[in-house]
Amino acid sequence: MRIEDIDHQRTRPGSASDILRTLDAFGFEWDGDVDFQSRRLGRYRRAAESLLARGLAYPCTCSRREVAERGRLGPDGPIYPGTCRTHPSRATGPRSLRLRTDPIEVAVKDRVQGPIRQQMERDIGDFVVHRADGVHAYQLAVVVDDADQGITDVVRGADLLLSTPRQVYLQRVLGLPTPRYAHLPVAVDAQGCKLSKSDAAAPVDRSDPLTALLAAWAFLGQDTPPERPGSRQAFWAWAKARWRLDRVPSLAARPIAEVVPPPEGAGSTHS
């Protein structure tokens, strides 16, 4: 179990405990102690320093606005134009650390979404591994964590699919193993907004885990139980023997309402 609380500006006090209580209520189990990214900053720093010492990364003073104005648009946003790579800045002040990318292709065979390929220099460009505000970038932290925790399979939302080649590239330059990847469709509302980011999205109900578990099971394309399980424990015993990854829809996003009907009694509001 890993709590990704590395970005202190976005971490809400008490959120980690709330996450762990919710997972426990839904019947999820984990091995060993809980790892917190906020307690592993020295490990990330050593990884970043090794990239810098080997000439694989360089300091950058460019702001996001400058990158947006000067960089061309790539599949995942503006591509860094290489300003500080070719002309190192002498300006003082906060600096980020960017990883140098080469003109090589990284291919990932995702177990749900299929193959994805990116030419790193052309499609991504030099990307940040340590931010100017002192926070280690997500890409670096998860790559180091996955290796240290012995992660063999990464299963996550398809909104992170385009980050995967960057992480594989980082794994290669750091000499770390590459796990298998499976990116599941993201649940969205009728307007296409990710539920976890939607103002109207209600939190899952810890007092009624079975309803949400059955909804998630249907959303992921699995066979419907012949009858409703009588408890959370009964659901897991039934589901573990019947899970099939090849039934998960190969969609980047899927409206939850198309799969899971609204609770009984719920209806539209009219003005």
Describe the structure.
With 271 residues, the protein is an alpha/beta fold. It folds into three domains: 1-31, no CATH class; 40-183, 3-Layer(aba) Sandwich (Rossmann fold), CATH 3.40.50; 187-258, HUPs (Rossmann fold, 3-Layer(aba) Sandwich). It has nine helices and 13 strands. The chain has helices at residues 15-25, 41-53, 64-70, 83-86, 120-124, 138-148, 164-174, 209-219, 232-240; strands spanning 2-3, 35-36, 57-60, 73-74, 77-78, 96-99, 105-110, 114-119, 127-130, 153-157, 180-184, 186-188, 253-255. The strands form six sheets. A three-stranded antiparallel sheet has the order 3-6-9. A two-stranded parallel ribbon has the order 1-2. α7 (164-174) links the parallel β10 (153-157) and β11. It starts with a strand and ends in a 16-residue tail after the last strand.
What is the CATH topology descriptor of the largest domain?
Rossmann fold
Give a count of the beta strands, DSSP E runs of length 2 or more: 13
Biggest sheet: strands side by side, in what order?
3-6-9
State the low-pLDDT regions, or none.
264-271
Average of per-residue pLDDT values = 90
Q: Label the CATH architecture of the largest domain.
A: 3-Layer(aba) Sandwich
Helix percentage range: 25-40%
- Give the overall shape, derived from the CA principal axes: globular
- Count structural domains: 3
How many helix segments?
9
Integer-rounded radius of gyration: 21 Å
In N-to-C order, the SSE pattern is EHEHEHEEHEEEHEHEHEEHHE
Distance between the termini: 45 Å
- The CATH homologous superfamily name of the largest domain equals HUPs
Largest sheet: 3 strands, antiparallel
Q: Which structural class matches the secondary elements? A: alpha/beta
> So what's the CATH class of the largest domain?
Alpha Beta
Quaternary status: single chain
Strand residues, percent: 15-25%
